[in-house]
Amino acid sequence: MSQRVSCESCGRVFGARSPQAQCPCGGLLSVTQRPSQRGATLRRRFAARQGQDPLVEGSGVWRYRELLLSGRGPIITHPEGNTPLYRRPALSRYAGIDDLQFKHEGENPTGSFKDRGMTVAVTQAVRAGASAVACASTGNTSASMAAYAAHAGLPALVFVPAGKVAAGKLAQALAYNARTLLVRGDFDACLRLVREASEALGIALLNSINPWRIEGQKTILWELLQQRGWDAPDWIVVPGGNLGNTSAFGKALREARELGLLRRVPRIASIQAAGASPFFKSYRTGFKRRFTMPAETVATAIRIGDPASYERGVRAIRETRGVVAAVSDRAILEAKAAIDAAGIGCEPASAASLAGLRQLASRGIVKPGHSVVAVLTGHVLKDSQAVMDWHLAGGRGRNKPIEIDAKVSAVERLLKR
Ligand code: F0G
User: Residue 228 class from Cβ within 10 Å (0-12 exposed, 13-18 middle, 19+ buried)?
Assistant: First the structure.
């Protein structure tokens, strides 16, 4: 098995141990997988490794290692992955889709899907001899990178937009001891800054422009396919911000098809918040024009106006006959309340997938008889303020807490109401 890294723009080739996260020409790097096994053999191997213990065998990422990063060396794993697929009748009704499952990536060790990309990218950085790691983030990437860097014993440098990161995520970066910089600017400014700074200072860049992040995030898709006995759903719905996941899903499906792991390719639906929807705007022109915009949304994780993996995202949508949709903040918060009330819970950005699915179903694009897997990207506790703001506002459907005197009569009075 082997991997080759090359630039998607100029074609320059790098070794798998290259410390480079982006091409000097400014293009994005990507990994070409050339495993020595194919379909049935790979399926048997993945099955034999599932749920076994020693750390690496127990990882829902490294289970697919011949399609990620080959070669000898340490593996920096928590472990991660092995996330559940949920079904909830109430949410099927909400979406208008009977055969609906949720893959909850918020149940990874640091509470988001980022851990899948980070275990591979940090492992590769360690093997490439990195002395420090850095990222720009709306919060989850920094929480995950900080944890994996701590695990690897590497100093971590985090750039986040000041005042625009949910408290749970910022707390994680601090707790895991990352040097945390609150940048006066939005995520897009943070990303520009870290791209330049990491280049100038020789620090490994671990945003999803780093091709090894994409490799790790492919396993969300493979794991859900394996959980379904390699029977693909009709649709896979995912929130879209910087478009790392949309790109990773496209690549995972391309490789699975080429390797004979999968016969039918599901369609990808990438869902943006209306206030941060440059990809959706481009989609509406048939991707003839690329848009950027100043972004604003309650879903701070996807408050991004200039997605770095735009080109890869376009390819993923085109190759899967996918669609892009945009949903209002109101629709996101209502979908989140439904997911939360079903006992699952997620952060606002994750609920874009259910809000988007509901919209696509109502427009007749996703049909009631279709099978769908919606990806939930982050944990409910990441943004507890969003939960409080929603419920404390009171009114219909809100679960406002009630302060009472410490007396049975007070409880009794309440129960009678
Ligand atoms: N959902 C959550 C919870 C996220 O944290 C992100 C991205 C996305 C969805 C969008 O994924 O960028 O691959 O399209 N968060 C990044 C961060 C930007 O810095 O944590 P994407």
Answer: middle
